[in-house]
Structures are given as C-alpha cells and as structure tokens.
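Propose amino acids for all 169 sites.
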C-alpha cells in the first residue's frame, strides 16, 4: 500500500468531540493552518491562505487526547489525508479529512507539562507503555458534545484547564 503521511501545524478551531463507534472511540476536531507572508512594502505580516482540516483520532490516541485538547490549542497532527464525497441539500460536496496517527501540542506556542505513562513489567512485555483501554465509562455522544472518558462527566465547552501551568498533555 502506498501511503503518504502529512503533517499539519495549526490551531484547533472547535471543541473536540469524543464519541463511541462500536467497541472503539473516536475524537474529532478541526484544525486551521495559516500561511503568512511579510509584505515587502509595509513590513506587515499578512495571512494569505488558511487550510481548514477535519481530524479524526481513533483508539488509544483518542483515549489519551480526550479531555486534554480544547478550542484554540496549538497542535501538530500527522496522518493520512482522504477525501469524503457526499450530497448536502442536493449539492455534491467534498471535504478533506485526516486520519490522525500522531498528535501533540506545538511546544513553540504552548506551555506544556508532559506525563509519561507507567510501564508495567510482565513476562513477554514488548517494552511499550500501558495505555488505558476501558471505554465502558464512555457514553454514546451526539455530534457536538464532548463526553469525558470518566463515567458521567461532560467537559465544559469553554475548554477547562485545571489549575497549574501549562496544558495537561
């Protein structure tokens, strides 16, 4: 399979939503990435174009990022691009979506605190960190609602940041 990965650096422009799909979960959000150029005559920086991209994270990545990303966060996303074609009100429409494989804060624009996952030693351990896989506390969410991985909690749409400094990544 010929798969080309793309990396996009930008800001999250909506409140990420987490929902259950079958036995798995998906985290969806949109990223805006700007191209800026300096005007040689005035010396001012101008935005010349903006790419808006729908991003979907599945499985362990969705579990780890759920409740940690908020509108306005500067992120770097990497994944595979694909095009969705559908009709809306009888008009053929196409949009581009990224199936995200890697996601992180843009540390050049955010103060971030990183917490490593604890590794559990066991026979046959492959050396990878344990990642929570229990989705039993996750509710089926209608589009537009953020449902936390903690049973019954719904995140504040305003983008809560607990006390302390930096994003809880």
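Proposal:
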């Amino acid at each position: 399979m010929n798969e080309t990965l793309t990396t996009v650096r930008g800001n999250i422009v909506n409140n990420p939503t987490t929902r259950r799909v079958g036995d798995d979960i998906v985290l969806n959000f949109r990223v805006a990435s700007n191209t800026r150029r300096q005007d040689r005559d005035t010396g001012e920086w101008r935005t010349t174009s903006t790419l808006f991209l729908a991003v979907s994270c599945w499985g362990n990545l969705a579990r780890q990022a759920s409740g940690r990303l908020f509108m306005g966060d500067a992120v770097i996303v990497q994944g595979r691009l694909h095009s969705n074609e559908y009709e809306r009100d009888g008009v053929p429409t196409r949009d581009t979506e990224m199936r995200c494989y890697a996601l992180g804060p843009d540390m050049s624009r955010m103060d971030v605190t990183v917490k490593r996952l604890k590794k559990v030693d066991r026979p046959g351990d492959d050396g990878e960190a344990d990642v929570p896989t229990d989705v039993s506390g996750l509710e089926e969410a209608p589009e537009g609602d953020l449902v936390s991985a903690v049973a019954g909690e719904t995140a504040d749409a305003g983008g809560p940041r607990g006390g302390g400094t930096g994003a809880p990544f």
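Residues 59-65 form the longest helix (7 residues). Residues 5-160 form a domain with the OB fold (Dihydrolipoamide Acetyltransferase, E2P) fold (CATH 2.40.50.140).
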